[in-house]
Amino acid sequence: MAEILTACTGCGRAMTPGTVLYDAEARPICDACFQKADLIATDRRAADNIRKAGYVCLAAGIASLFAPVAIGFQIACVVVTLTSGVYALQSLARGNERFTKHLTPVQQRLVWVCTIAGIALSALSLMGVNIARFVY
């Protein structure tokens, strides 16, 4: 019995029914095109993690500034700020264009601003500027 061949929507290569894979839109693709699409999706997720690290840096910096006088929580906020900030800054450095090409220039600038602001707020909280002391 003759098998019905399916064409890959990515490259047009003929595939037997046993080798057909499907992309996110349920189109038939070959293994090579599936691997390329999976690599691009993974790179986009990594770029999204870079963006989220910048936002977390700012949020933790604000939390450390408004943290109650409890030193343990303040130190935890500073550690989160610095680790996510260093990750974001290293990811935006030259040589990581594989991931940052999936961020728009506005997103890249926003990550820079959020990261620098978060680190600066954490530094202020470590120097003794704590908003919670003035409120209570």
Describe the protein's architecture and organization.
- The protein is mainly α.
- It has one domain.
- The chain is 65% helix and 6% strand.
- The chain contains five helices and four strands.
- Helix 1 (31-66) runs parallel beside helix 4 (105-126).
- It is elongated.
- The mean pLDDT is 86.
Write the SSE topology:
Layout: E1 6-7, E2 14-15, E3 21-22, E4 28-29, H1 31-66, H2 71-92, H3 97-100, H4 105-126, H5 131-135
Antiparallel strand pairs: 1-2, 3-4
Helix pairs in contact: 1-2, 1-4, 2-4
Task: Summarize the helix and strand pattern as letters.
Answer: EEEEHHHHH
Number of helices: 5
Strand order of the largest sheet: 1-2
Tell me roughly what share of residues is in helical segments. 55-70%
Gyration radius, rounded: 23 Å
- Identify low-pLDDT runs: none
Q: Would you tell me the structural class of the helices and strands? A: mainly alpha
C-alpha end-to-end distance: 83 Å
How many E-type strands? 4
Q: Classify the beta-strand content into a percent band.
A: 5-15%
User: How many discrete structural domains?
Assistant: 1
Shape: elongated
Instruction: State the major sheet.
Output: 2 strands, antiparallel
| Average predicted confidence as pLDDT | 86
